[in-house]
Amino acid sequence: MLYTAPVKSKRSADVIEAFEKLFEKAQAKPWRLMTDRGVEFVAKPLMDYYDKKDIIKKVAYTNDEVKCAMVERANRTLLERLYKYFSEKNTLEWVGILEKIVSAINNTVHTTTGVRPIDVTYENANDIREDLINQRDSTTTRNAQFKEGYDDRHNMWITEDQLVA
């Protein structure tokens, strides 16, 4: 499921308010949270908030740009739908339409899983995960892009100066 909450600014109070809205929508709170190094996630008031809520806070320090494929894909889908809405309605107002777009995304069958995100529950999540693993294992491996051996057709790109004895 995709959950969103608009944030007025990156101030700690606004981010905490957004987290509260997200936890309420999800009817759950995470026991662990991993974010990038953005100040909005690591400020002292936020760290105190995580402690108060018993949330283990992890910060991704491995790269300057840490990417999570699922989050990036969700962001892309959300932005695509927002841009389509902006074009159709000739507006840049997004706060009022955000919930409708998120609801539409959550009610659309996901290509990979074959189910709508809204239909995934704690009871069937493991079955869906197993199906995905079995699908991946049953697919045939592609032919290698390069075959072993020497291909003479590339000689035309080699000049005499480049030949090494």
From TrEMBL:
Q: What is this protein called?
A: Integrase catalytic domain-containing protein
Entry superkingdom:
Eukaryota
PANTHER family attached to this UniProt entry: CHROMO DOMAIN-CONTAINING PROTEIN, INTEGRASE CORE DOMAIN CONTAINING PROTEIN
The UniProt record lists the Integrase catalytic domain at 1-125
GO BP, sorted A to Z: DNA integration
**What are the protein's GO molecular function terms?**
nucleic acid binding
User: What is the scientific name of the source organism?
Assistant: Acrobeloides nanus
